[in-house]
Amino acid sequence: MMIELEKIIEDFLSSRENIKKRVIVCAGTGCVANGSLKVFNTLIDVSKELGIDAHIELKKENSGSFFSKSGCQGFCQNGPLINILPAGILYTKVKPEDAKEILEKTVKDDELIERLCYHSGNTICKGQEEIPFYQKQHRIVLKQCGIIDPENIREYIANGGYLAARKACMQMTDKEICDVVLESGLRGRGGAGFLTGRKWDITRKQEGTKKYMICNGDEGDPGAFMDRSVMEGNPHSVIEGLIIAAKATGADEGYIYIRTEYSLAVERMNRAVKDATDIGILGDNVFGSNHNFKLHVMEGAGAFVCGEETALIASVEGKRAMPSPKPPFPAQSGLWGKPTTINNVETLATVPLIINYGALKFRKIGTENSTGTKTFALTGNVANTGLIEVPMGTTLRHIIFDIAGGVTDDEGKINEDNFKAVQIGGPSGGCLTKEHFDLSLEFESLKKIGAMIGSGGLVVMSKHNCMVNVSKFFMQFTQNESCGKCVLCREGNKQMLLMLTDITNGKANEKTLALLEQLAKAVMAGSLCGLGKTAPNPVLSTLKYFRDEYNAHVKEKRCPAGECVNLLSYTITDKCVGCGVCALKCPVKAITGQKGKKHTIDTPECIKCGVCMTSCKFSAVERG
Amino acid sequence: MTSNYSKFEAVCCILEENNFDKSKLIPILQSVQEEYRYLPAEIMSFISSSLDMSPAIVYGVATFYSHFTLNPKGENIIKVCNGTACHVKKSAAIIDAMRKKLGLKENENTTKDMLFTIETVACLGACGLAPVVVINENVHGQMTAEKIVKLIDETMGAK
Amino acid sequence: MGKYLTINGKKLEFRDERNLLEIIRKEHIDLPTFCYHSELSIHGSCRLCMVEIAGRGVMSACSTPPELDMEIKTNTEQLIEIRKITIELLLANHDRECTMCAKSESCKLQSLARRLGIEEVRFKNIFHKESKDISTYALVRDNGKCVLCGDCVRFCDEIQSIGALGFAGRGWRAKICLSFERNLESSECVYCGQCSRVCPTGAILPKTEFRGVWKALSDKKKKVIVAIAPAVRAAIGEVFGVTEENGTEIAGKIVTALRSMGFAKVFDISFTADMTIIEEANEFLERLGKGDDMPMFTSCCPAWVRFVEQYYPDFIKNISTCRSPQGMYGSIARRIMPEVLGIPKEELVIVSVMPCTAKKYEARRSELAKDGVIDIDYVITTQELALMIEEAGLRFGNLEASAFDMPLGFKTGGGIIFGNSGGVTEAVLRNVMNTNGDESEEFNFVRGENGVREAKLKVGTRELKLAVVHGLKNARKVLRDIRADKKRYDFVEVMACPGGCIGGAGQPVYSDLAVRKKRSKVLYENDKIMELHKPQDNPYVQKIYKDYLENPGSKKAHEYLHTTFKYRKRFKATLEIFKSHLEKSININVCVGNNCLRKGSKEILKHIIGDNKFKDNVNVQALICLEKCSNGPAVKINGKTFEHCTPGSVENAIKEELKK
């Protein structure tokens, strides 16, 4: 269908002319958890209360304020976040009680409520641009997340959306698109980092008229949520990337496979696909070209192994997601035996930018071999957590200290000494230590040291995190998520987990460590798919950088970080005055004693949560 | 009298909406699970008969994906996030406290009185609030072993 | 110009090999595998055929196609380490009571552990014993021995199109099981047993019953008679390292062995195979004349028969009603032999030796029993016979040959070739063509390895169209084509197992196709040296007809030599739809099997309970299935089944019932 994007832009802008203020409430999971929906509802109620006449009358039309729900803006622990446009004011930690003040002061009178602004040291940051967390990032993929209304295709178009798709469909040949993307140096953001342009070109060259595009939105890394944020915050950018990829590879049908837990992403993506289909961007004769593209949204059913292309294909076909050996590669024989290209969400969302701005401009961001930006899900012991986007090649130092605001202690105060390691890439990644602070984060450099960007999880660990326990945690995850097909991954991960459990329980010896390392290497070399091949990474990486910690567990039966509960015990010393606070706080009622007399802990009952120790005002609880 | 007719009818509709298409098995099972809150074996047999596919395949798919459950769930569902961020902020202690509080044995996830089911999930994407617990779709951040016990008490009290 | 690669430094030419494993094995390097079978899809799960490829690292040979100038190593330190660890990992989760496993000495896991010099398992033993599935006569499943190579799953699905077995669970909890962890008996298994043939360990084995045979043999009050199937002689020699061109010597050794064990009479199933041909040919000509229920399907293979009964009830009428040779043997042995041999009925114990696991099931089909008494007491496999010979301490190779007992020991070549796929058809042709004046004795066009072999030939003025099929997936395709009118045949032979009975699951386990070809050849060679080739020429068969059965196709012959078939539901499910709390209420079962559902059982349910028409007076269940697929929708009301139901007719029927 012929679509006049310019007309849509014009209409949209003119409809917006009279909108004076926009109040955008973040509706990402983090903010929702902090109560952003309540804030949103209160804002609507209060706005009605305050300006009843004006609002009701003008409800449909072009004035007054405009509320919309946005996707995650990062910065989660400061939620609920509210953006007020066009002034560009960002309020953090907003409560429903603040609604009235915001509407009366800021919306009506453009008055800044300093109390609600983010404070960086002594500076009050008025808007996103002034907050170091955002200022130090380089947001291109996430740029519009949190700004535009993800449920309004017209707004996406008005912000330049679908121009790249139209250009690709109307003005470029399939080969030209592949060439531009190849030239841009874009590499898959899902893990292995294969050159996207090359991948497309392989499918493009396959014979046959039926080909498929699949967008992998089954983000399964237990500490990463950038894909979700893009799908929630800017779903049309993913669809646009898919249209371009489909044109480049010759696919006329596509799937967006979304992790089922991401209900908001599913909802938004469904809506976006429907809107794009209604408007004529998806379907037959995209933009009036002779290219057809039909898009389906499919909910995953919970399987991390779907990150593996062949497993994802099996899942789309309605089967158990068990990977199959490659070759044949999906590009040759994929979904229902047809040539298929699979790209991850972030990769696809990047594509329209490359088409719009050209390969050269894109190449300027990042490094020679890892171009563009990468989003990370930053969590753990840092001042600011949330989603960040930085150029490839950025150093860990820049991320932790400039963007994340530094390492924190367990109470949340800045304390650089508390830093121990960064876990990057989730269950298939590895650890970075202080010595890697100035390492440029890109595909090759990380691979060299046994880690990987993976899906982009970035967890800052403190001195109180036991690295053995961390690798046990990841192994627990992968052995649960292993599809169970190949022996090395199914049995090997299980045995590694048993060994790690023994180590954290003080039941291992030095032989265990040697065997663990041997097994890890065998699983890495011999497993059938990427899940198995990378599952040992956390083990090998912690063994490499934190051997001492392993040794302490094995030789001295001691957990230096004080985290392995079976190597710990809590006792109450004579300092106890019998105030009973600990007994009251203990969640499992493991502490008994008479009022005024020394209390005791029933060790078998104790779950070693440490509440007694932190709640004792007399330092009478000791950990040993 | 007890009637399960409406549920059965819903299953028939789900099959029809999906055109009895074998490749839609996963969406079909998802919709059916929404109806029953779990996947009863008899219904899965019915589905495999209706889709003309081997019941072993249906069973294989239903037991593969973590989203599917073959046992009835409790009235209240508590999801504990065990994503990386929550884990490093000691979600394990919360799980322990909860299991003790609810008297759940190893490998048990639903209380005998069918009041509570606990699930551990990988990353809810609210890492900034770690550790996170979701009780009946309400997200609770910065959880502690102490707080979860109180929350369970409150949930019990509310019923 | 040739294409070359190097293996362990040696330059080798490759042509059309599909993967590196084929090339490596051609080089006589026995790269181990559990999950690779040339007839099945590439699975890649066992991780044993790993090789090192220069520039690419460690890869599985089974899934890597050869490429120009590849440099491959098959036995580096790293590869040995990976293989060792793989085997140790499997052993750490395996029932290691090997001495008590029937697969001991032929188990691939055991032999690999030995080959790789595994002296200890360094990993924790995480094995948990599960109870075995002994629910059927055919097979025993023991998940404790399973290495999850998935060979059984793929065979059941890819070759047989049954899919009774499947993977369930995931991660270390993954297992192979039947749907909903039911047992074999309540699954859709047709008992072909090929899963046990491809199983590298003892996780699926043919069920044995030879202990009972020993017991009967030692019972002084019993006389035990036995008959061996044609295919047995073609394979048992493999166990004892005895080979022979045509199998007669081996058959003779079997007779000697059985006699020395104490069997009173040793017969040959080929005798009743001759009878089967005569009956079947007669039935075929009759049907051909009338044009009814064509094409006619053979009925010798019980797995195939069960397959039709389960999946294609509309084709049941096409199956020849003749009993299989085993079925005829049972009937004659039970009802005629006491008189012929002068053995009192109650003293007679009847045993058959079969290449097949489904025959164990077949013998117990109620349709083959008379007054609730089954004909054959024990069905043992070729494997079991070999075990008995070993157990008796007989040196098989050194035994003298001796002759079968009469009368059921005499056969023609037609009865011998039964063991091959195509054999039944050929024997039928020898009979049918002869009736039409053609003296041909060899019909080479029905022989061979193809899964579906078609032939046309003239009989009198008519052109006959035949199909010879092995493998049930091929059979399914043929049935679909017939149903869709894409193909027309007059006669279709189907054997469930690839190659026919010679490749049966009761035979010594083979994995190399060459072994099966050799067995096939033995039977054809045996046929060649026989005095008679046409079943109708068998004088002893003629005598039995004369003395007891009148003519082929007679009423008597039908009573002794024919059987019936029925629709068998694949699996059961009962859905409680509406439960009355009244003590007296009408029980209504509505079939919601696939056929009935599409024909409107949902509307029936809606009509009778959707608007609560009968209040608390009815108990309604939806069922799979009432086995009336061609006459659906079917509804059972207080025990009475109604066919071709409509919402209205069911309502009326309920009202009638309410009046009572």
Instruction: Report the mean per-residue pLDDT of chain C as an integer.
Output: 92
Known CATH architecture of the largest domain in chain B: 3-Layer(aba) Sandwich
* Chain oligomer state: heterotrimer
Strand order, sheet with most strands of chain B: 3-2-4-5
State the end-to-end CA separation of chain C.
Answer: 89 Å
Residues in β-strands, percent of chain C: 15-25%
The overall strand count of chain C is 22
Q: Globular, elongated, flat, extended or rod-shaped: what is the shape of chain C?
A: globular
Considering DSSP H and I runs of 4 or more, what fraction of the residues of chain C is helical? 25-40%
Give the largest chain-chain interface (CB within 8 Å): A-B, 65 and 48 residues
CATH class of the largest domain in chain B: Alpha Beta
- What is the CATH third-level topology name of the largest domain in chain C? Fe-only Hydrogenase (Larger Subunit), Chain L, domain 3
SSE sequence of chain B, one letter per element? EHHHHEHHEEEH
Report Rg of chain B: 18 Å
Segments of chain B where pLDDT lies below 50 for 5+ residues?
Answer: none
Question: What would a concise description of this structure say?
Answer:
The complex is a heterotrimer of chains A (624), B (159) and C (660). Chain A is an alpha/beta fold and 624 residues long.
Describe what you observe in this structure:
The complex is a heterotrimer of chains A (624), B (159) and C (660). With 624 residues, chain A is α/β, with parallel strands linked by helices. Chain A folds into five domains: 16-130, 3-Layer(aba) Sandwich (Glutaredoxin), CATH 3.40.30.10; 153-363, NADH-ubiquinone oxidoreductase 51kDa subunit (Rossmann fold), CATH 3.40.50; 373-465, Ubiquitin-like (UB roll) (Roll); 468-555, de novo design (two linked rop proteins), CATH 1.20.1440; 569-623, Alpha-Beta Plaits. Helix content of chain A is 41%, strand content 14%. Chain A has a five-stranded mixed sheet, with helices on both faces. Chain A has a four-stranded mixed sheet with strand order 2-1-3-4, covered by helices on one side. Chain A has a four-stranded parallel sheet with strand order 9-8-7-10, with helices on both faces. In chain A, a hairpin with a 2-residue loop joins strand 5 (118-120) and strand 6. Chain A is globular, with a radius of gyration of 26 Å. Chain B folds into two domains: 5-64, Arc Repressor Mutant, subunit A (Orthogonal Bundle); 76-158, Glutaredoxin. Chain B has seven helices and five strands, in the order E-H-H-H-H-E-H-H-E-E-E-H. In chain B, strands 3-2-4-5 form a four-stranded mixed sheet, covered by helices on one side. In chain B, strand 4 (133-135) and strand 5 (138-140) form a beta hairpin. In chain B, helix 1 (5-17) packs antiparallel against helix 2, helix 3 packs across helix 4 and helix 6 (91-102) crosses helix 7 (145-158). In chain C, 36% of the residues lie in helices and 16% in strands. Chain C is built from 22 helices and 22 strands. In chain C, helix 9 (269-290) packs across helix 11 (325-335). The termini of chain C are far apart. The mean pLDDT of chain C is 92. Chains in contact: A-B, A-C, B-C. Strand 1 of chain B pairs antiparallel with strand 18 (573-579) of chain C, so a sheet runs across the interface.
